[in-house]
């Protein structure tokens, strides 16, 4: 049995039946059918596609292994696969799902996977007669628009974490944050992979260059522009992370050079008394200093004087500078202490699938 919705000018009615009944209800005058599955593993997906004549793309799931966002057309039928995205702030992870739409402009089959579910909101809109009058293109537009709207909150949270990490890198603390930077780069790349394959399609929507009637809805132009802005925001995040990574690796190189200088300076200071004591440790009889009454204190004084002079010289040249406790230029310009660690001190965060875009 297949659960589906028959939409007419008078309203939307939930029905259930086999493939033959679904095909008959979808073919009724002034009506169209919407079949919605909340899992790719749900029973009846292939039966529904076959009943509605939407099986030209092959057996479902189509390209099931790591599906990428895509738009394909075959003889008037369209498959639109978009990635749903949500961001888990507590672990700074980007998670993705899919929403796949099969349509020929007269019937619609949607298959969803993941936390984000735009379907209930769109079903509520079926109560509006003007929305129902838009037919399948209106529903496809509403679903696509809802998915793209969900990107904003994830992009905002991702950008906040990137900004926090940037402040930590330039806080003046000598902490190796390469792993954190690489982790956020990987998550940003996963987000980009969920969005970028549809950018060309978004440009076509914005410029109204699509040749499928189902994308003729006037709102698709705005959705295309929105998707392009999200992609630009992610590119900004990736560019910032790449710059921060390069700067941080330069910092680590500087720290290593400073450590080498300090080690060399202290080694030079330590070698002076070692040389003096080594010479006097030879105990030759013809060394007159060995028989002086002031010979021993004079040798100790010489060691102290040489060490003090070397220490002052190295310190003046900056070789003994403690760079790890200096206040960074970043924090001085902002008048505040070093930013606390994100993961350790922040309270438990929630999944935020909506919010304003992150371009700043």
UniProtKB/TrEMBL annotation:
Coiled-coil regions listed in the entry: none
* SUPFAM superfamilies listed in its UniProt record: CorA soluble domain-like (SSF143865), Magnesium transport protein CorA, transmembrane region (SSF144083)
Pfam families, sorted: CorA
| InterPro entries in UniProt | CorA_cytoplasmic_dom, CorA_TM1_TM2, MgTranspt_CorA/ZnTranspt_ZntB
Where is this gene product found?
Cell membrane
State which residue ranges cross the membrane: 263-282, 294-314
Gene3D superfamilies in the record, alphabetically? CorA soluble domain-like (3.30.460.20), Magnesium transport protein CorA, transmembrane region (1.20.58.340)
Q: What is its main location?
A: membrane
Alphabetized, the UniProt keywords read: Cell membrane, Membrane, Transmembrane, Transmembrane helix, Transport
**Record's bilayer topology term:** Multi-pass membrane protein
Family membership noted in the UniProt record? Belongs to the CorA metal ion transporter (MIT) (TC 1.A.35) family.
Protein name listed in UniProt: Magnesium/cobalt transporter CorA
**Corresponding gene?**
corA_2
């Amino acid at each position: 049995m297949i659960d589906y919705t028959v939409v007419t000018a008078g309203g939307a009615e939930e029905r259930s039946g086999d493939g033959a009944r679904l095909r008959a209800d979808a073919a009724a005058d002034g009506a169209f059918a919407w079949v919605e599955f909340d899992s790719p593993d749900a029973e009846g997906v292939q039966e529904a596609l076959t009943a509605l004549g939407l099986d030209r793309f092959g057996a479902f799931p189509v390209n099931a292994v790591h599906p990428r966002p895509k738009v394909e057309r075959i003889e008037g039928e369209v498959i639109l696969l978009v990635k749903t995205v949500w961001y888990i702030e507590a672990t700074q992870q980007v998670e993705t799902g899919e929403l796949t739409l099969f349509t020929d402009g007269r019937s619609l089959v949607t298959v969803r996977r993941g936390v984000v579910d735009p379907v209930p909101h769109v079903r509520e809109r079926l109560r509006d007669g003007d929305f129902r009058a838009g037919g399948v293109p209106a529903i496809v537009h509403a679903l696509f628009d809802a998915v793209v709207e969900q990107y904003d909150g994830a992009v905002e949270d991702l950008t906040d974490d990137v900004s926090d990490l940037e402040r930590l890198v330039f806080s003046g603390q000598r902490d190796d944050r390469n792993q954190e930077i690489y982790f956020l780069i990987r998550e940003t790349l996963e987000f980009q992979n969920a969005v970028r394959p549809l950018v060309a399609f978004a440009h076509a929507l914005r410029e109204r260059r699509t040749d499928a009637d189902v994308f003729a809805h006037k709102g698709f132009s705005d959705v295309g522009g929105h998707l392009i802005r999200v992609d630009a925001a992610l590119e900004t995040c990736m560019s910032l992370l790449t710059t921060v990574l390069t700067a941080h690796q330069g910092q680590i190189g500087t720290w290593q050079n400073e450590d080498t200088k300090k080690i060399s300076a202290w080694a030079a200071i330590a070698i002076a008394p070692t040389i003096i004591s080594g010479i006097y440790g030879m105990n030759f009889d013809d060394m007159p200093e060995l028989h002086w009454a002031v010979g021993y204190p004079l040798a100790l004084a010489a060691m102290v004087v040489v060490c003090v002079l070397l220490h002052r010289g190295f310190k003046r040249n900056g070789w003994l500078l403690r760079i790890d406790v200096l206040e960074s230029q970043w924090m001085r310009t902002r008048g505040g202490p070093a930013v606390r660690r994100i993961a350790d001190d922040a309270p438990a965060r929630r999944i935020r699938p909506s919010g304003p875009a992150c371009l700043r």
